[in-house]
Amino acid sequence: MASIPVIAIIDVGKTNKKLFLFDEDYNIVHERSARFTETTDEDGDPCENLESLRLSVFDSLRFVSSQNKFDVKAINFSAYGASFVYIDEEGAPLTPLYNYLKQYPPQLKEDFYSQYGGEELFSVQTASPVLGSLNSGMQVYRLKHEKADIFKRLKYALHLPQYLSYLVSGRACSDITSIGCHTNLWDFKKAAYHNWVNKEGFDKVFAPIVPYHETVPSVFPPDAYKVGAGLHDSSAALIPYLLNFREPFALISSGTWCISLNPFNNTPLTPEELRQDCLCYLDFKGNPVKASRLFAGYMHDEQVKRIADHFQQDPVRYRNVVFDAVTVRNLRAQYPQGISFEQRDLSAFTSDIQAYHQLIADLVVQQVQSTQLVLSGSPVKRIFVDGGFSKNGIYMNLLAAAFPGIEIYAATIAQATSLGAALAIHQSWNKKNIPNNIIELMYYSPQIDVISAI
Questions:
Q1: Bond preceding residue 404 cis, omega within 30 of 0
Q2: 183-226, pLDDT tens digit by residue?
Q3: Which architecture does CATH list for 234-454?
Q4: Any idea where the domains of the chain sit in the sequence?
């Protein structure tokens, strides 16, 4: 039997590290996942186990090479952003992979912004709210000013997706999607690195930017893989939608963070939007994508635990709660609205299912506020929701009620982030046309009785 041509995608999330094999029609024909125990950096702060991650990449390569039924044509990578790997001349990491939630020194932050125009002006220029270590450029600035001896040995600072690519290709490169995700590095008006990057000498440690579709041979003969440069995960997840839909749309990519992405909003960020955690990404072609973020997935999981504990139920019970419009209407009539669910007294609810409906209703109120930030001033008529909340009937019905003038769809797409990374280098390995059925949509119409209750 002839082997199946496939592309391998290594997708590195904060929790799960996954390998997917896609066939030429972009069906997943194999997948495997792993979790690593975190380690700590020199300050005792938790961080990614970089050595385990490195070994897992090579383990994945050995695995795909051993599978005779698959003919691996190419490999690409997607990974979370805001994380740098610092390598020396030999390609060896010089530091731990610092956590983007690591506390940033207040004095160093103050020194930086006072030197480069102040927080408000700088944030507008770079479309990056002031986020400390989550602005990954600030991590490089910290390395230079706190660990000068290590900085002197630095050959390249590679964002995590590009480091993964480097392990397989031996090519050090930068990618526009990793640079353009709240890094403080990119001047969105100039469409180039911000002036401070050159003033600090970082242009010497940032590898050349390569096109999203460019591939190079792997450094592991005889396996003649074509290796992509890697992509930031949120930007990769947008690719299937950009390739399939031409009419203006917004995407709510839901997970731990619910990120509202609008590729059709070209209005500059205002200081007020930045203060509300609005920002801009760069898509795989270098175009700005207005975005806002809400920690909704995390909030949901934490409050589900609270509901389950209070009502002595298994948290699994809330994975498939059926939407009940009558319950929503009663909640609107009986309980004060406009407060966050963690402030609510659970003993006030008559049942755990009623409490769960209120949790989702409270999250949707916050979601609407967050999504509105990227809709203003753009002609969006459709919103797609993918990820965990797209499978939540309560969330989807309430979202449809909150946006009666916009079509709301739950999008079912097999691993959007990994699929996007595969589609980005389609022309390098796949002779077929990109199929037009890779996204399944379910329309949610706004129910009159729910609208009247909002």
A1: no
A2: 999 999 999 999 999 999 999 999 999 999 999 999 876 667 89
A3: 2-Layer Sandwich (3.30)
A4: 4-229, 234-454
Per-residue pLDDT tens over the stretch 93-133:
999 999 999 999 999 999 999 999 999 999 999 999 999 99
CATH topology of domain 4-229: Nucleotidyltransferase; domain 5 (3.30.420)
User: What HEC string does 140-198 produce?
Assistant: HHHHHHHCHHHHHCCCEEEEHHHHHHHHHHCCCCECHHHHCECCCCEECCCCEECHHHH
Dihedral angle over CA of 235, 236, 242, 243, nearest 10: 160
Total count of residues recorded for the chain: 454
CA 409/CA 386 separation, integer angstroms: 9
> Residues 6 or more apart from 436 whose CB is under 8 A from it?
244
- Kindly report the CA angle at 348 between 346 and 351, in degrees rounded to 5? 75
**Tokens 């702060």 belong to which residue?**
45
Question: Who contacts 260 (Cβ-Cβ below 8 Å, separation ≥6)?
Answer: 250, 251, 252, 291, 292, 293, 294, 367, 370, 371, 373, 374
- Name the pLDDT band for 454 (thresholds 50, 70, 90): low
pLDDT of residue 220: 75
β-strands 288-294, 249-254 pairing: unpaired
Q: Do domains 4-229 and 234-454 have the same CATH topology?
A: yes
Q: If you write DSSP's letter for every residue of 193-218 in order, what string do you get?
A: E-HHHHHTTGGGTSPPB--TT--EE-
**Close Cβ partners of 350 (under 8 Å, ≥ 6 residues apart):** none
| Confidence at residue 223, expressed as pLDDT on a 0 to 100 scale | 67
| Torsion sign over Cα 159, 161, 164, 168 | negative
What is the amino acid identity at position 243?
L
